[in-house]
Write a structure and sequence with these properties.
The protein is an alpha/beta fold and about 700 residues long. The protein contains 22 helices and 25 strands. Helix 12 (about 355-375) packs parallel to helix 21. It comes from Streptomyces litchfieldiae.
């Protein structure tokens, strides 16, 4: 649950919004209250989805059908607006924790608790199927745990045709089941049961395309499913939909008295605490302040730096650009088309002054090196410019930056943005304008179908988490591992924690997962617990400040094992917070240090000469991305093709570039598809981060 942002409405359709609950595939879900004070989960559909052809019609059908179905353990639609300017649907608010959160924090559910979970979910699905409908999106995230049993959410009001890869039946993965039915729901329920009792999805983790391919070509991984549940789960996951049991069959097979299938005490306490937590107070509604007189914006100052023009003064939207003067001023006045002789531009959407500036500066320097080099030595058949903008890591400024670059028709593609917190809002704008977007440092974009022009140029957060268990086990020889999900890092931490927890070999590793609530300043209790438990390795999945404080607390508690974190904790903030306790901490990151590899020595030498320092994070990756873009542009120009954003996107999706950092390639949906190292290892040593080379990937 997160506070409302300044751009969020305060009232919708008679509901008063209190907090953000989650981001779904098609919109935001808010905690709201009705006029009578009833807590409600209000899903507001994103404009790009509500405007999509056929979406509103499907949404209206979903809502109309769902409002007539009631069952114990099924959250259905209370009210909706399918025709207004804002498209929304209201559901009962279920305060219990979602199943993935519980599994990440406490590990797999016991077999009998899983049986009862399955029986209650089958009962809810039975009511849906008896009404001649299908749920179409059964997955762990739609299962919320309450003291009296699970509640299945996500029914009605989605407007989507299918559910989540990894829980889709083979016929859905093949595209045969365009209108999913009861047998597809049963397959998904079998996946949920396998996930609940083993702690990992039966088709593993990966990109959407990888999961769809596994559903078509590979059997589910049911190695750890207990014998008491194995036959039922196997029946649900039958490749042929005809022999799968019905929801009624499953309820009869799995049902048992509630007392026999109760949740483990730690899980029950978590559920009870979540349900008992008071609702947040609504934000005070004040009349909007009178608009202040608008001062004329400062005249931008252009400063020449080695032949590149730098916009010095702050602009009206708070972004800084490296531009070629007059064309920028024309675009700012609303023009969307550059003069015919302006050539082409690569946009760089980055964070140069915010919390991820150490990533943004590296990308800026790498891209700058590539553009300068190509303009000088590349014999390009067109004029090329670089247009960076600084969003400072702020979502509002990111929107302004993306609109600025998208409006300039000379911009054929954009590299960026830098941080996860601005990625979604920026990617929406670029997708609507058809601008190819190469994201280098963003960890996870969710479902790629939402961002049609996205090219994700690194493995996502989930894959980074998947390489950690193998290294901890084989590389560090650990037997007891402490795993910390720091809620201050929100989605990033939960995604990484789930990946680590789901991939760890429980036969070889004793895992002690712990959740640290938002606002935690003192890590002493969890550090003392890990020290007393003789933990070999502590894996921390949050940000740098928390990692540094944890390192210090572990040192003070007498902990003698190793600490390991991810790249979001890798930086100067960690060193400052940890002090001497930083020594020996390990970090898994998706960017390389070109100085640590023979092939990158030339790049390092030129970077030092150009900027007076060694390359920073994502400098080599930025260089490679710019070179790949220009190679695709050159290829089109030399073939006599007209250079357009759509044409460039098509070329990039089919390209493969062997760069300084790693191979760059994408599948048809924009997922990273390159070969070579998926992650790299760094170690804190003597106040610096030393590059230790690639981390072995799963299965290598």
């Amino acid at each position: 649950m997160k506070p409302l942002e300044p751009t969020d409405p305060r009232r919708i359709g008679g509901y008063r919004l209190l907090r953000r609950l989650a981001r779904g595939r098609t919109g935001l879900v808010y905690l709201a209250t009705s006029l009578g004070g009833t807590p409600t989960a209000l899903k507001v559909i994103d404009p790009q989805h509500s405007r999509a052809p056929g979406f509103r019609a499907r949404f209206e059908r979903d809502v109309a059908a769902a409002r007539h179905v009631t069952a114990r353990g099924l959250a259905t639609v209370l009210a909706a607006d399918t025709a207004g300017t804002t498209t929304w649907a209201a559901h009962p608010y279920v305060p219990g924790p979602p199943l993935p959160e519980v599994l990440a924090a406490h590990g797999p559910l016991p077999p009998r608790a899983t049986r009862l979970l399955g029986a209650r979910l089958a009962e809810a699905l039975g009511a849906v199927h008896d009404a001649g409908l299908a749920h179409r999106d059964v997955r762990p995230g739609h299962v919320l745990l309450m003291p009296d049993g699970p509640v299945l959410t996500g029914f009605g009001g989605s407007g989507t045709r299918t559910g989540q890869p990894g829980y889709l039946s083979p016929e859905q993965a093949r595209g045969v089941a365009l209108s999913p039915g009861p047998a597809d729901d049963v397959f998904a329920l079998g996946c949920v049961l396998a996930h609940a009792v083993t702690g990992r999805p039966p088709f593993g983790r990966g990109t959407d395309q990888e999961l769809l391919l596994r559903a078509l070509t590979e059997p589910p991984d049911l190695a750890d499913v207990p014998r008491s549940l194995l036959e039922v789960v196997q029946a649900c996951l039958h490749r042929d939909p005809v022999p799968r049991p019905t929801a009624a069959d499953l309820r009869a097979e799995l049902d048992l008295p509630a007392a026999d299938g109760r949740l483990p005490d730690p899980v029950a306490r978590r559920v009870a605490a979540r349900v008992a937590a008071p609702l947040p107070e609504p934000h005070p509604e004040r009349p909007p302040p009178a608009p202040a007189p608008r001062a004329a914006p400062p005249e931008p100052t252009l400063v020449r730096r080695r032949g590149v023009l730098v916009l010095g003064a702050a602009t009206a939207v708070g972004v800084v650009g490296v531009l070629a003067g007059r064309e920028f001023l024309d675009a700012r006045r609303g023009g969307a088309t550059a003069p015919a002789d302006a050539g082409y531009a690569i946009g760089l959407h980055t964070d140069l002054t915010g919390s991820r500036a150490h990533f943004g500066r590296g990308q800026e320097r790498g891209v700058t090196m590539a553009v300068e080099e190509l303009n000088k030595l590349g014999r390009l058949p067109f004029a090329l410019r670089l247009l960076p903008v600084d969003d400072r890591g702020d979502p509002d400024l990111a929107v302004a930056a993306a609109r600025q670059l998208a409006a300039d028709r000379s911009v054929l593609a954009v590299i960026g943005p830098t941080g996860d917190e601005v990625a979604g809002v920026a990617a929406d704008i670029y997708a609507e304008a058809g601008v190819p977007l190469l994201a280098l440092s963003v960890g996870s974009f969710g479902s790629r179908e939402e961002y049609g022009t996205l090219l994700h140029a690194r493995p996502d957060v989930g894959y980074t988490g998947l390489v950690i268990p193998g290294y901890v086990t084989d590389g560090l020889g650990a037997h007891r591992v402490g795993l910390i999900d720091d809620r201050a890092a929100d989605t990033y931490s939960s995604l990484t924690t789930r990946a680590v927890s789901g991939a760890i070999d429980r036969a070889r590793i004793e895992l002690l997962p712990r959740v640290v609530p938002v606002g935690t300043e003192d890590f002493t209790p969890v550090a003392a617990e890990f020290a007393d438990a003789d933990i070999d390795v502590v894996v921390y999945c949050g940000f740098a400040r928390g990692a540094g404080r944890l390192a210090r607390a572990l040192r003070e508690a007498g902990f003698t094992g190793r600490g390991l974190a991810t790249q979001e904790a890798l930086g100067p903030v960690f060193l400052r917070e940890a002090g001497d306790a930083a020594e020996g901490w390990l970090f898994v990151a998706t960017y390389t240090d070109p100085g640590g590899e023979e092939a990158g020595q030339g790049f390092v030498s030129v970077h030092r000469e150009r900027f007076g320092s060694a390359p920073g994070p994502y400098a080599a990756e930025g260089y490679d991305a710019a070179r790949m873009l220009v190679d695709a542009m050159r290829g089109a120009a030399e073939e006599g093709a007209r250079l357009t954003r759509a044409g460039l996107l098509s070329r990039l999706r089919g390209a493969r570039y062997h760069g300084v950092a790693r191979e760059l390639a994408f599948d048809a949906a924009g997922h990273y598809a390159g070969e070579g190292p998926m992650a790299y290892l760094y170690e804190a040593e003597s106040g610096e981060f030393r590059f230790r080379g690639p981390v072995p990937s799963p299965g290598t």
